[in-house]
Fold this sequence. Notes:
Blueprint: E1 8-12, H1 17-30, E2 33-37, H2 47-53, E3 62-65, H3 68-74, E4 80-83, E5 89-90, E6 101-104, H4 113-118, E7 123-125, H5 137-151
Parallel strand pairs: 1-2, 1-6, 2-3, 4-6, 4-7, 5-7
Helix pairs in contact: 1-2, 1-5
Amino acid sequence: MSLRQPFHIVLVEPEIPPNTGNIARLCGATGTILHLVGKLGFSTDDRYLKRAGLDYWSEVDIRYWDDLAALKEAFPQGRFIYTSKKAPQSYLQFRFCPGDFIVFGKETKGLPEELIEANPETAVRIPITGKVRSLNLSTSAGIVLYEALRQTGALEGA
């Protein structure tokens, strides 16, 4: 799948290697750029990370950043969409645009609450109707990314 202006998945301080591996595979399958931000909770040589990505690593455009500020400085025109269970609107209500940066926080803490509060217009959540607190990071990335791809017509003819 080739996108004129690819989406970006941003993982801030991911902690669990298979989640990042699965998201890398998702990015490879959709032509999405993967940004890994901050201190990773694993080595990129981790066998679980590599196993989750299988043999698709050559298909993934991965970029590393010291912090979110450095990424935002490198893409001053970028629109950053912040995901959190505390966000005011559902990802289904949000209108995505090609080239959006979809930002996910670390598995144990998510994104800082002050980041969500400072950006309510670009903060989204995945509705959860049961008693489960949250979804797996790689599942969440797939849900939101595929909605963004659907909304922008990127899946048509795929």
